[in-house]
Amino acid sequence: MAAVSNKTLLLSDLNSDVVPIHYIRPISERPNLTDIITSDIPIVDLRGIDGADHSSIVKAIGLASTTMVSLTQLIESMLCVAREFFRLPESERNAKYSDNPSKANRLSTSFNVHTEKIGCWRDYLRLHCHPLEEFVHEWPSNPPSFRDVAARYSRKIRELACKLLSCISESLGLEKDWMEKSLEDFGQHMAINYYPPCPDPELVYGLPAHKDPNVVTLLLQDTVPGLQILKNGNWVAVNPIPNNSIIVNLGDQIQVLSNGRYKSVLHRAVVNSDKERISIPTFCCPSMDAVIESHKSFLNQHHNKQLYRSFTYGDYYKAFWNRGLSQESCLDLFTNP
Ligand code: OGA
Ligand code: NI
Questions:
Q1: 227 C-alpha vs ligand 1 centroid, how far in Å?
Q2: CB contact at 8 A, 97 and 140
Q3: Which residues belong to any copy of the Fe2OG dioxygenase domain (predicted)?
Q4: Which fold has domain 10-334?
Q5: Which end of the chain is more exposed for a tag (fewer CB within 10 A), N or C?
Q6: What is the mean pLDDT of residues 90-107?
Q7: Whose CA is nearest to atom 3 of ligand 1?
Q8: Mind listing the pLDDT tens digit for each residue in 7-40?
């Protein structure tokens, strides 16, 4: 492991002008950065969500596979404490390090250093956010405002997530509270992804192509491009929209709950040579015991069978961490014959 042979735990501490060998992807699996298209993705302005525009917003959400919404001041503060955290002196920051995926709140690197063959060009801080009181004392206490800002941000983003879930239910023709009820007091995890500059971005991924295993991901990114989604067979750059936008990424559980009507989105993160990049996804997940199955109204309407067998989210999550990012998703393991 190059990170170890260079005597660093995290990429953030690596000082090298070449890419260490264990990050380099085989030629056929590289990002081909010159081929990337920039195109529009659907944007939904959620400001009228509680007012007269409600029904048109629900319609727009039904049409959009990825949406952006405007949020508040908190976004700036969240990005700010995230950046400050990764700028802390190594000894201070790395006290939070753990490579044990079952630990709820930890600083780590790549994806799962125990199972992967090629590393991801990423360090990350992973935080559980719900119920907040249970986890906040394990979060970093430096920079001093970290806990306060991240707690306020995660509360706000949860409110937004609830509204979105309700609109998604409505757009599927279901009761507003159906999605949220199915998730049984949904879990909320945040990752603070830190992608350092890379001597040769063509050789590596920040995160290789994957679908998020959860229900929806609300992703905040700074001003540096890096996120790409697969759209009609092409990799498309989802460049940051200035002024506080959040990207909503549909995950595997939306695909199961809607019996395939909405699809989870294949996406990846690339890195660049001169700028660091920070992204902060909030993953909304069913509770581990929630039984995931599509609403019976989808059976005749869209397919005459349940595309996926029933499972608990705990089973799915275990499969996801076992498989890692070597495949796009774990849906194939739960597909009905
Ligand atoms: C993720 C992810 C993309 C990004 O953390 O699951 O897809 O832009 N991140 O960092
Ligand atoms: Ni993702």
A1: 7
A2: no
A3: 185-286
A4: Jelly Rolls (2.60.120)
A5: C
A6: 92
A7: 269
A8: 678 999 998 899 999 999 999 889 988 877 776 6
Q: Helix (H, G, I), strand (E, B), or coil: what is residue 93?
A: helix
Burial of 92 (0-12, 13-18, 19+ CB in 10 A): exposed
Q: CB neighbours (10 Å) of residue 5? A: 10
Q: Alpha helix locations (H) across 38-176? A: 54-63, 74-86, 90-93, 132-135, 146-171
Residues 273, 186: contact at Cβ < 8 Å?
no
Of ligand 1's listed atoms, the one at least distance from the Cα of 267 is 7
Give the span between the Cα atoms of 167 and 162, in whole angstroms. Answer: 9
Substitution site in 267, 268, 321, 328 for ligand 1 pocket (most atoms within 8 Å of beta carbon): 267
Pick the residue whose CA is nearest to atom 6 on ligand 1: 212
Atom index in ligand 1 nearest the CA of residue 193 equals 10
Q: Which residues lie below 8 Å from residue 314, measured CB to CB, with a gap of 6+?
A: 288, 289
From the CA of 252, the nearest ligand is: 2
Q: How far apart are CA 310 and CA 289, in angstroms?
A: 12
pLDDT digits (tens, 9 = 90+) for 128-166: 999 999 999 999 999 999 999 999 999 989 988 998 899
Decide if 189 contacts 128 (C-beta within 8 A). Answer: yes
Which residues form ligand 1's pocket by a CB distance below 6 Å?
A: 191, 193, 207, 212, 221, 226-227, 267, 269, 279, 281
In contact, 201 and 237? CB cutoff 8 Å: no
**Cα-to-centroid distance, 126 and ligand 1 (Å):** 12
Q: Is the peptide bond before 31 cis (omega within 30 degrees of 0)?
A: no
Q: What is the pTM of this model?
A: 0.88
Q: How far does residue 284's CA lie from ligand 1's centre (Å)?
A: 14
Residues 246 and 160 sit within 8 Å (Cβ to Cβ): yes
Task: Please check whether residue 135 is in contact with residue 40, taking contact to mean a CB–CB distance below 8 angstroms.
Answer: no
